[in-house]
Every structure is written in C-alpha cells, then in structure tokens.
Write a structure and sequence with these properties.
Layout: E1 4-5, E2 9-13, H1 16-24, H2 26-32, H3 44-64, E3 74-79, E4 84-91, E5 99-106, H4 115-128, E6 135-141, H5 145-153, E7 157-162, E8 165-171
Parallel strand pairs: 5-6
Antiparallel strand pairs: 1-2, 2-3, 3-4, 4-5, 6-8, 7-8
Helix pairs in contact: 1-2, 1-3
C-alpha cells in the first residue's frame, strides 16, 4: 500500500474500498490497516465538511479515477509511535492549470504538537514532486487562527478574503539548474 512517511507520521491515502469501509465502520477500516482504534475528537464544523466530502467527492471521485485516487481522497495521518490515526489531510482533485488544493484536520487531542505542520509539509513535498504542479492552495476561515498560523508558518501567503473565507497559496520553488 502506498504511503508517505515523515519522522513521526505516516500518511496513507485511502482507496475507494477503504473509504467505503471508513464511511460505514471507521474502526473496521482502522483495523484493516493494522492500526489501533482511534477515538477522534473533531469540531462539529469539520464533521459536517468530512461527511460532505465523503459522500459528494471522495467516494465518487476515487471510484471514477482509481488510478489517481491519491488526488481525490482522505489521507489518514498516523502517529507512528502510537500506531493510531490522529487526523486527515487530502487534495481536492488532480492539478488544474498547475494548481492543486489541500485541506487538513487534526484530532483535538493532538493539537499544538506540530503534527499538522509535519503532515502539511509531507503532502506539499509529494504534490510538488509532480512536474505539472506549481502551486498549492488552501482555504480556512478568518476565525481559525491555528490554521492561519499553520499556513503562514509553512510558507503559504494569503491571497484572498471572501467574507471571512480566506485563500492561501504556496508557489513551488524552482531549483537552480
């Protein structure tokens, strides 16, 4: 199974069959990955966004594009030391005009430990490892100070504010020849 590994984390993109299992029985999905069962604590707003993404994006798109599922799915963020899922990160589809979009969530029990930053750096490196991508986009709400700080810390620059819904961009740094 494909995954990305960092010092403390493993990011596992869920293919269609694991997304289905996650949607119907998260504990069974975690067991199928050999993980300890999580008891994630997330904001209600994220729960609604997660359910919407699952039904209206991840499941239909991973089924439609199985060979590109990494671009259309939730990537489980696994804390290697505890072998437990502590959040999710993902992309909003394959790149369009050289741009990709990401989103993320960390279990409340694991906030303020640098895991979101580590996961964001890992997915950014993976995305920018594709020659056809030159920019990564992320969105957050103006009131989400932690997310705004995370994006800024990781080099993203705010480029838009539409009624408190902020857009951030990170441009790929070209390596000198």
């Amino acid at each position: 199974m494909f995954f990305i590994e960092t010092e403390r984390l493993k990011l596992i993109p869920l293919p269609y069959h694991l997304l289905q299992l996650s949607h119907t029985n998260r504990a069974a999905m975690e067991r199928s990955l050999g993980l300890n069962i999580s008891a994630m604590q997330v904001d209600e707003l994220f729960e609604a966004e997660y359910e919407d993404a699952m039904i209206n994006f991840w499941l239909p798109k991973t089924r439609e594009y199985p060979e590109l599922y990494q671009w259309y799915t939730n990537w489980e963020i696994i804390l290697k030391s505890d072998n437990i899922a502590i959040g999710g990160i993902g992309l909003a589809g394959s790149p369009v005009n050289g741009e990709a979009e990401t989103g993320y969530m960390i279990d409340k029990q694991y906030h303020q430990r640098g895991y979101a930053s580590e996961a964001l750096q890992a997915i950014t490196n993976w995305v920018f490892g594709h020659d056809d991508v030159h920019c990564l986009i992320a969105h957050t709400y103006d009131g989400n100070t932690a997310s705004k700080n995370l994006l800024t810390k990781n080099g993203f620059v705010q480029v838009a504010d539409e009624f408190g819904y902020l857009t951030y961009r990170l441009e790929k740094q070209l390596q000198p020849a």
